[in-house]
Specification:
By secondary structure, this protein is mainly alpha-helical. Helices cover about 80% and strands about 0% of the residues. It contains 13 helices and no strands. It has helices at about 1-10, 10-25, 30-55, 60, 65-95, 100-105, 110-140, 150-175, 180-190, 205-210, 215-225, 235-265, 265-270.
């Protein structure tokens, strides 16, 4: 009985070894490191100056309390959380090393946890300079949001991991020919998540679809906080509930796609 328990126990040293592998890979390439900082910095400067212009010419946006800049930062957390997860996974596909990992004692859950940790590391490298630029150029203190920021961040990162797990499973099963979905899926969610505008802007039938997505509640909550100075906890609770279902479904889907890849021999291929 104790042997069976040990076989199913998560091994943190194995997870640590995988995180160190991805960390050394990231640190060994300055272009990879620069890219993590470059795009978030470019976004915050572009959209920040746009909000500054609008604020000078429109009373509503002058009262918006930096909601556009806040939306840009939260969107980057969502997008780069998923991308940071998926890039680490794709590194194994590009190196054709995934088959070796799956034949090692490394469990799928340990592999996914290591990707989640690397997602947070990559996210911190990109978003922290972004937040500092927002403070320096536009006097927008992202951390002044306070405790609600924890709820925003947790819900967005759980969504990004769920999407990352699912698309990684698709690439695992279908090979690098499906790699484009890693880069495009989150942008497909972008209009429905109502990042820069309220849900009420959408047609009525699309509003029902939008409310099925956890990020929608986060961005609505962010606008309510920055514009109306009201923290809507019910939005965060609903978002978390949807995230729990989404995360469980994505994990189950990944395991199913992994089993399918093993049966069909695509685990060792990984080509187009």
């Amino acid at each position: 009985m104790s042997q069976m328990t040990a076989a199913h126990r998560i091994s943190w040293p194995r997870i640590q070894a995988m995180v160190l592998r991805y960390w050394y890979l990231l640190m060994s390439s300055w272009p990879r490191l620069l890219e993590l900082i470059y795009w978030p910095a470019l976004q915050i400067i572009t959209w920040g100056f746009l909000q500054s212009y609008i604020a000078q010419n429109d009373g509503f946006f002058a009262r918006a309390g930096g909601s556009l800049i806040g939306a840009v930062i939260l969107w980057d957390i969502l997008f780069r959380g998923q991308l940071g997860f998926s890039i680490s996974f794709l590194e194994e596909m590009w190196a054709r090393n995934l088959g070796n990992l799956m034949m090692s004692p490394l469990k799928p859950i340990e592999f996914l946890i290591s990707l989640m940790i690397m997602s947070l590391i990559r996210l911190a490298i990109g978003v922290i300079p972004m937040v500092l630029l927002a403070l320096f150029f536009f006097n927008f203190n992202f951390f002044a949001i306070g405790l609600p920021l924890i709820a925003f961040f947790c819900n967005l990162i759980f969504t990004s991991w769920s999407v990352g797990i699912f698309v990684s499973g698709l690439v695992l099963r279908n090979g690098l020919g499906a790699e484009s979905i890693v880069w495009t899926l989150m942008f497909g969610v972008m209009p429905l998540a109502c990042i820069y505008y309220p849900v009420a802007v959408l047609p009525v039938w699309l509003q029902y679809v939008a409310w099925m997505l956890p990020p929608t509640y986060v961005f609505e909550g962010m606008r309510a906080l920055l514009i109306d100075h009201v923290f809507r906890a019910e939005l965060m609770v609903t978002s978390l509930a949807i995230n729990v279902v989404l995360f469980a479904a994505s994990f189950a889907g990944f395991l199913a796609l992994l089993r399918s890849a093993k049966r069909n021999g695509s685990l060792l291929g990984g080509g187009e």
